[in-house]
Write the structure tokens for this entry.
Amino acid sequence: MSIITAKAIWEVCAFNIQSCIIAEKVGAARVELCDNPIEGGTTPSYGAIKKARESISILLYPIIRPKSGNYYYDANEMDILEKDIKMCKELKCDGVSVGVQHIDGTIDIDNFKRVVEWAYPMGVTCNRAFDATPDMHQALEDIIEVGCERVLTSGQATGAPEAGEVLGKLVKQAAERIIIMPGAGIHSGNIEQLMKESGAKEYHGSARKLIPNPMSFSNPLVLDAGNVYISDEEELKKILSFFQ
């Protein structure tokens, strides 16, 4: 039986519990739970993962990424990965999203295999570490060898819609040995064309919007409070209309 189904599905990249709940409400198939949207997503807290697992019944894949910047990890960081993956297993997550590279950007096959072993029986998505490799076609073969079930990728472009044909080539190269999941820059205005060009069966995005600060008082001299983003329910509904 093929691991790729005939009907396409959507995964929501959620940065808070509110977005997880919206994802399930609109009919998404899976949530990738992350912290720190501005830095490309880092590992969410124990409490965030636990609350998400208690609140939604759809598939939950927290990102396991202890730092931003790159996906090269030393021995201490690999130990963090192991502990965070075991935490996700204890909290009954369905899988994790993770990537591991050598210092030269190639996939660290040996350490990535350890990650997949730690995660079992959970599934493993290779996150956009794939998009930071020097040779995406070799990286895809390496990730297949590692044992991941899917690759999240923009086709090494800034956004997936800019690389529809490249993604289509990756889908063909994968030949149903692994799922190619386009992500980054996808919205209701470009999803249809991307689906036609790539032929992929899974897609990923946050459809996030900035929400106003609800505080009745804020100090104008304190500038490091940051922003809060939430998945736009109406935009997700528009995106998912192409999946019906």
